[in-house]
Known about the structure:
Layout: H1 7-36, H2 40-53, H3 58-75, E1 77-82, E2 88-93, E3 98-104, E4 107-109, E5 114-116, E6 139-144, E7 159-160, E8 164-168, E9 173-179, E10 187-188, E11 190-196
Helix pairs in contact: 1-2, 2-3
Amino acid sequence: RPKPPNPDEKKIDAKMEKVKDSFLRDTENLIKSYEEAGSYDRARMVLEALQKLYPQNEQIKVKIEQLSAQALDASETDFTLDVSKSWQEVGPVQRDRALRIRVAGDYKINSLSLVSGPEGITGENPTTDAIPNVPFGAVMGLIMPADGAGGNEKPPKPFLVGNSFEKPAERDGVLLLKVNIPAQAKCTGKLQVKVGGIVSP
């Protein structure tokens, strides 16, 4: 036999709807306050928590993407990459926080009479002393653990940056950049880099 409807349930459901509306309104105000204060990462964290409650809500998803882009724009810094040097420190990054790197310009590899851009040179590596899986001459990045050791974490691996790179940082640490050429290859020139996602120390 079906259970008879409980008259109190409708009252409780009505209260639930009011609580839900109030919660969403308060959360929207909180997110807006964080945005106005320029705290885009905090606003995104609140939205991500909200997304777990309402996973089908497309507006939340779109807003999270907007806030990620705003956070990257707000934290964007200019950096000049001197290709004649080895790994150069850009700044601290946080695990799972969005990281965006854009590179422009070209430079000369004097000892090999080659010119390369941020994407590197396609084809066989002209030397054997370059990082594998990254095109020869390409801009690459590395996130070095802040303490230098990284505890039980795997040692950091260089990754291809090229003209542009946009992914969450794989660990807490310091972002380093260099071009993928062997130490004995003499290079001249500078590449202009814009980096979003560097955190304040």
